Each structure stands twice: as C-alpha cells, then as structure tokens.
Predict the 3D structure of the following.
Amino acid sequence: MGILLQIVLAFMRVSAIAFGGAYATIPLVEHEAVVVQHWMTYAEFADLIALDEITPGPILINSATFVGMRVAGIPGAIAATLGVIIVPCALVMVLLALYRHFKDSPVMDGAMVSLKCMAVALIASTFMRLGANALLPEGALPDLGTTVFSVAVMCAAFWLINRKKIAPLPVMLSCGAANLIAHLLFL
C-alpha cells in the first residue's frame, strides 16, 4: 500500500472515532502516529502539539496535516487533511438527520453525557503523558532547576488562562519568552 493511501486511511480511522472536541482528538492522533504507524516519537509528537497550539485552525486538521507533512511532504499533508475530513462530513449528515428525529429522547441525552465523560478521560490521559514528556523528556535525566521552573511556568499559565481569563496565545508567547530568558540567564 502506498504511503499516501496509508496516511488517508490512518486519519480516516482517527476521524471516525474523534468525538469530544479538539483536545479529545489529540490522544487519537498520538496513538495512530506514534504507536500504530511509528511515524514519530512521543517527543516529536509533543513538539507537534506545541506547534499545533500556536497555529490557527482546528487542532485535528492541523495535527493531521503536520503529521502528513512530516511523513510525506506536501502530498502527505494533503492526504492527511483529506483523511481527516472524509468520514466526519459523511457522519455529520447522517447524525444530523438522526439528531433531529431523536433530539428529545432520554437515550440521546444519555449518549451525549457518555461522550462528554469519554472526552474528559481522553484529555486527562494526554495531559498526563504530554506533561511527563515536557518535564522529563525521553532519555534525559531530570534537572531539578529546569523541572521546578517548568512546573512554575505551567502553573502560572494555568492561573492566567483560567483565573484571569487571558487569551491562550499571549500566555503561550509569554511562557516561551520566559523560558528563553531563563535558559539564557540562569538554567
């Protein structure tokens, strides 16, 4: 099977089960790109997510496009993007018709609650894996100063976004600047 077809099929699988919003899809892309296909390492995937966060657009499409670009250049990026949108476009048409018909059903309410719970579990698992990789990269011995600084920056970013309601982009840029300054001056 050609690599472009493999990319399309891989991202069709991801998008077929990608429920729960943008952040819930990250572990699905991670599993496909790192575990199943071995197209990248966990560290490379963590870098991809960091790049994905500062790039405008939907997270699933961006991450798929980045993976496709890494694997097969521009044709791979196009194949991954197409793979991500084919299944959802077909499913949305079918699900919209079903939702309109059953929207007042208690079964539909239960299904929606279950999907939300699944999304939280997916996000939490990715958070833990990416957090561990950010604080303790593969093959690196932990540097206490860097780890403490990273945790402090992470907590400050969380506080700024959630308590002070500052938009994520300025917080991310500030965290990057703080890290650069700290490494140039202290760490």
Remarks:
- The chain has seven helices and no strands.
